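Chain and backbone:
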Amino acid sequence: MGKHVVVGSGQVGGHLAAKLLARGHEVVVVTRSGRGPEGAVKVAADVSDASRLTEITKGADVLYNCVNPRYDRWLTDWPPMAAAFLAAAEATGAVYVILGNLYPYGPVTGPMTEDLPLASTNAKFQVRAELWHDALAAHEAGRIRTTEVRASDYFGPGATDQSYMGDRFLGPLRAGKAIPLLWPADVPHTWSYLPDVAEALIIAGADERAWGRPWHVPSPEPMTFREMGERMAALLGRPAPRLRQIPWPVIKAAGMFSYMMGELQHVRYQFTEPFIMDSSDFQRTFGVAPTPIDQALKATLEA
């Protein structure tokens, strides 16, 4: 069994570490606080410290970047952390697997595929694009081996309030109350199941066919907020939930007092028009399908 270094223990990092531990690997979880799942070696470290991260990564087969700074700190926090990851991967030879997202594509027409340019004009999303471009350049120069695994918005066990399908949605659903929505209820959207995201990262780190390019996490067919709510309510044996959209001017006003609400202006385009991710390339190449939607939603409700 190999050594795997998982940096970040949030929505995805926790699932990833648990899956690796279940397969008998040595797992080192690196966070600022030093917390992590039972069975892992837990290390407290500043991820932007290249020397420290390199020391931790020595002897590792795979280094996973599952870090997610606060959105309002992407411009300041990502560049030094990205440089530290590259330095650690180059010095140790560990395969560098990046947990990515769809923001760098910017608004697109039609389903998103991995060959689309990272054309967002948003400065924060450009930082994420640069992170991948720098890693890919190092790969093509023969300095490291890397891949990026991109997911859409998360749902599943362990989803936090940062997820649109987290407690803010599930709490009212379980209680039979109206569900407050930040976005329109009937726009198709791709959702990525957290255990599937973690599984895709493991596959990408172990299979050399994945290296040198990005991949999309196997995800179910797009569903609207209303469809997700109705599907989960049916699994609970309850009538379709009531959905209540919060007016955009109210959200904008709240952004004056909450950094998270203020950041929503940057992603609004993802929810006012269909936001669809095509993951067929990963599914076809590695023979992996997303978890069936009812199975995934049942596990989400039971968590």
